[in-house]
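Troubleshooting log. The previous structure file for this entry was overwritten by mistake, so regenerating from the original sequence record. Sequence copied from the archived sheet and checked twice against the printout by T.R.
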Amino acid sequence: MLIYRFSVTRPKDTVEVWLIRNKYSPFEFQFVNISKGYICPCKFKTFEDAVKDMESLKSEGKIIHYERLPDFDFKPLSVVASKFEEEIK
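Regenerated output below.
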């Protein structure tokens, strides 16, 4: 699963936010505030829609600045373990 990462500066703090595909609806994205352990109930059809939402929050003054951090591809432990086992053989 590809995880899109952002650093978001708000008026009172800076947090790391991930944009991930919804577990139960893989055709939707959701923001997860990693710094606070909060899953936003908002759902977006595309990556671009999610970024537009951040732009909207920025124009409202709820977000001061955001920047994209390097993405990473999260692989389930079972996939990582099987590749490791293959390398050992």
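The first strand starts at residue 2 and ends at 9. Archived copy saved in two places this time.
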